[in-house]
Amino acid sequence: MTPDRDAGPAGSAVEDAPCGYLVMDHLGRVVSVNATLSRWLGIPAAELEGGEATAIFGLASAVVFETSLLPLLRLQHEVAGVSLDLKARDGAKVAVMMSADTRGEGEERLTRLVMLKAGARRDFERELLQARADAEVRLSLAQRQGELREQFVAVLGHDLRNPLAAMSSGVRMLSRRPGEAQEAEILRLMQGSIQRMSRLIDNVLDFARNRLGGGIVLDLRSGDLEAAIRQAVDELRAAEPDRAVRLDLSLAHDVPCDVWRIGQLVSNLLGNALAHGDPEEPVSVEATTSAPGALEISVCNRGAPIPLGALEKLFDPFVKLGTEGRKGLGLGLYIASEIAKAHGGLLVVTSGDVIRFTFRMPAPAVEG
Amino acid sequence: MVFAHGFGCDQTMWRHVAPQFADRFTVVTFDYVGAGGSDVTAYDPDRYRTLDGYAQDVVEIGHALDLNDAIFVGHSVSAMIGALAAIRAPAMFGTLVMVCPSPRYVDDVGYPGGFSQADIDELIAALEENPLAWSASMAPAIMGTPDQPMLGAELTESFCRLDPRIASDFARAIFSADNRADLPKVAARTLILQCRQDILASEAIGAYVRDHVPDSEMVVLDATGHCPNLSAPDQVVAAMRAFL
């Protein structure tokens, strides 16, 4: 070993300075180490000298040193503040912060490494990283809650639209043709719409209080199913007086269900059929009970078939059918489908010349 | 001629080698996603869970450049990425140059990978736990070298910039890979460049690759360490010229 004039620590101030110091040659061999580094490693200096410099590091640090730091020293001749682990003879790890530089070319090339103990600093860095990870988790949670809130607002807007449209249309008619009999009928419809809106708002506020947990909750206390369906259909008829809507009800059996929700389902399906069907063709709504507890409702319209690709996603939230800018948030079918599921039923669609949405409860048994 | 960098750095690894071939070849260098000037938003942890994702990128680069019978020069892990790409698209790469390759870092029966499974587990855990080990690489470093002012222009660039999290994933993909079964499928003419005292890929591993890649030869360079493209670029260039 021939200590370099600049590099050799022997007898110099760095020999027992509170830092590790190592000089390495162009082949990556240790030229010299100071007493402090030798003490940290528990290995005599004479034993380290001539060996591979990477041997002083733990495995991961050796790999980083070889693949990243040595190239950097070649390219920019200096690295600073790298967090590495030394590996002592007894297996203990010594966390250090290393800075290094390189001088000279070819066989004269020497690299000097200075290391400071950095155990406490490493703990602090680890805490910072942990804090960052925690903050990211909290942020993504907050973002998800934000999305839910947006969805919530969208649902609110959607559900309030149909009854509001009916009321607005009713008011328009009242102001156009004041006649007693009609007035009474329109007022009845308006009253129904107002009731439905207030129920919606109650529901939405409950929902908000519960932080949007757990899907659609049913109220199975008995109600008038037929009246609920008629109300939903009449509301939309009033909103679109030029459209023909056929209603065919055959509800002989008792069906435990949330009648208000079923009304919402019909309203959404019919609203969808009116929005997307051929305006010259009638829309039909049929509801039958084939046995106690067995309800089937179908809504049919004629019009352009639904493209195959769109069929798959039809019941996802915020999916819009057809032309851009068409009214609706794309929530109606999603909500209808969720209502069907909440009843242990299923909402399916077939699309050909006739587009038919069918709700069945209980859901048809799946074969196999 | 496509140059691909290895683990821990970026395409600047090739700055002393690639230009030497610009007279005879169209030279292409690139950064894998997460390294150098790449767009880290393109990173997809699933795609890059294994080396196949990286090989797919190489093939996509080859398609974009319309490569036919090209030369792929891969350092370190890129040697295997190149092998996978050449198996996928044999017409694209007719020649491979593998610099310090290893098809598997973990020891196996009759195969001296150089690391025990416990070593690799410790390595990956340590890299994940201490991403600051990369901190010298991740910062766009503008550092003074008072005694070498001519390097001033270069120093405004950043060398070996890495996204530490992607680097940890990359380490996991690399050190858990086993591409030994792929070697016999390599149809390309292959040159293996090997260094002495390479802590990542010993001479025995270089010889293993030579013995299992059908049309291959190995040259042991008079260089130490894992990065002869920086420590001994002249030897790398000379060996490649002789082969080509």
TrEMBL record, chain A:
Entry EC no(s): 2.7.13.3
Limits of the Histidine kinase domain: 155-365
Protein name: histidine kinase
GO MF term set: phosphorelay sensor kinase activity
SMART domains for this protein: HATPase_c, HisKA
Superkingdom assignment: Bacteria
Gene3D superfamilies named in the record: 1.10.287.130, Histidine kinase-like ATPase, C-terminal domain, PAS domain
Automatic annotation (TrEMBL), chain B:
Record Pfam families: Abhydrolase_6
AB hydrolase-1 domain span: 1-239
SUPFAM superfamilies in alphabetical order: alpha/beta-Hydrolases
Listed InterPro entries: AB_hydrolase_1, AB_hydrolase_fold
Gene3D superfamilies linked: alpha/beta hydrolase (3.40.50.1820)
Database matches in PANTHER family: ESTERASE-RELATED
Family: Belongs to the AB hydrolase superfamily.
Protein name per Swiss-Prot or TrEMBL: Sigma-B regulation protein RsbQ
Natural source organism: Roseivivax lentus
